[in-house]
Amino acid sequence: MNRSTIAAIALTATAGLALTACGGAKPTPGDKQGANADAYAPVTVGKGFTTKGGNINVLMSSDFQTLDPGNSNYVQTANVGQLYYRTLVMAKETAGQPPKMVPDLATDLGKASKDGLTWTYTLKKGLKFEDGSPITSKDIKYGVERTYARDVYTQAPQELDSALADDSYKGPYHGGDFKGIDTPDDQTVVFHLKQPYAEFPALVSRSNTAPVPKAKDTKLDYTNHPLSSGPYKIKSYDRGRSMKLVRNSNWDPATDPNRSALPDTFTFSLSTAQATISQQLLANSDPTAITLDSNGGLQASDAAKLNDPKVKKRTAAGLLGCTDVLNLNTETIKDKDVRKAMALAIDRAAVQVQYGGARFGKIAQSYINPAQVGYVPQHTDLDPAGKPKLDEAKKLIKGKNVPKKLVYGYADTNARYKNVGTVLQQNLKQLGIDLQLRPIPAANYYTVLAGDQMPDIARSGWCGGADSGSVRTTIDPNVGPSLDGKTYGFSNIPRYHDAKIAKAMYELRGTNGTSEELGKKWATLYDQAMQDYPLVPLVRSYTSSVVGSKVRNAQMGYFFGAIDLSTVGAEH
């Protein structure tokens, strides 16, 4: 799942093929980074707290893009969404680890047919909306159907929809019967797939399956008060200013072991400047305060204050599943040796400094990591400490047609990304490349990257395995082929398409098996693709977030990149 817009969504790969692709390169180190490995251990504030009551005050610099589960591809909405909606399956967070799939509205993780083309879910008994009406299978189906109305919901999650066997459906407002889901009775939901999908429980953990009663659907106005199926409901919402959540009396905790629902209320301040958020949290001016802003709302100038023992004991932290990379446009930088030379020339340690240093992330060697299901050791010639290998880079491009000018595009709201471009300018100048920096409006950033104006180099981020822990959910979107396998996929920013690898990935999509078995095949193909250097891994995020002195059970969500709202509590 793209962190800046949001998580995600028969070939036998022999050892001989893998070795041929490796070309003698050195294996990627594991998840440890030398002596600093312990620095990336997860830290939870007030672990084990179980007392109900009190209030959590959430300080945010801006409002949520949307609260509508059917129109959300944003991690902040997914985080707060845990409080007021439930899905068939839940991606349950544990600090420092990929989430675990657990049943939520459903009794189990689903039952797959022998051919893998049908998944059946049974709803728990006693499920109700906030108004006391029962939650039925038809509400689940209608919630999914809304996400097909992409003329209305432009940010609707697409991973589940693309897996279901009905490409012609245009949503419930255009008529027609949706054939991707059957509801034989009020308790049963049956999904029909185009191809087997071993990680299907992860797809139904996405907000698509949050139940929506058809009679309460107000289309785009639904964001103002989505009907709650979770432990809290919206009492008041003044867009751009504030929101208050209170307990949903029709939520039955006996049906929901995943959410502790400790506080009585959550209040949200939606227009607090980030510098003010940072100051208030560090000063403990509000003992019940937290933030969902990225990097815990901390300003670069405040980083040293985390060493204060009084602040340190109030700081939740964790290594995320989110990694930033540079995408090298393979349509404009066509020679893989030139791309590899560029990768070798980049001072990734200097890039790490622009991210705030080792405190804010570790140098990454791959887009996938050893904690993901199906991971196999990857191979790279990049220096594990991130130092450039300029001599090797120059040898690679000797006699090559190296571009004289290239463009680096960056989101214009974050000085960090511009500063990364300055580092790249200095590095690539050593290869005779004049790199121009082009600011792109942040609101349109990923639209530009998917369109005709894609620059030669662009940064992006992905929370790998954040929805299922599977390597596929990183590999397929980022370097996989289109739905028909004939070109590069929608989220494949570098436009990478090797005919042989694409064919193998396309066939692998239709292969039945376990996530572990299939994941190893995906990871082996990914390793082969990376020898063509369509991507340059930069930094895997480590986030620290200071909380108020009365906040408890504050853990850093592996996927959310912020305090996990489903576990937090408050002394009172």
Automatic annotation (TrEMBL):
<feature type="signal peptide">
    <location>
        <begin position="1"/>
        <end position="20"/>
    </location>
</feature>
<dbReference type="Pfam" id="PF00496">
    <property type="entry name" value="SBP_bac_5"/>
</dbReference>
<dbReference type="GO" id="GO:0042597">
    <property type="term" value="C:periplasmic space"/>
</dbReference>
<protein>
    <submittedName>
        <fullName>ABC transporter substrate-binding protein</fullName>
    </submittedName>
</protein>
<dbReference type="GO" id="GO:0015833">
    <property type="term" value="P:peptide transport"/>
</dbReference>
<dbReference type="InterPro" id="IPR039424">
    <property type="entry name" value="SBP_5"/>
</dbReference>
<dbReference type="GO" id="GO:0043190">
    <property type="term" value="C:ATP-binding cassette (ABC) transporter complex"/>
</dbReference>
<dbReference type="GO" id="GO:1904680">
    <property type="term" value="F:peptide transmembrane transporter activity"/>
</dbReference>
<dbReference type="InterPro" id="IPR000914">
    <property type="entry name" value="SBP_5_dom"/>
</dbReference>
<keyword id="KW-0732">Signal</keyword>
<feature type="domain" description="Solute-binding protein family 5">
    <location>
        <begin position="100"/>
        <end position="467"/>
    </location>
</feature>
<dbReference type="InterPro" id="IPR030678">
    <property type="entry name" value="Peptide/Ni-bd"/>
</dbReference>
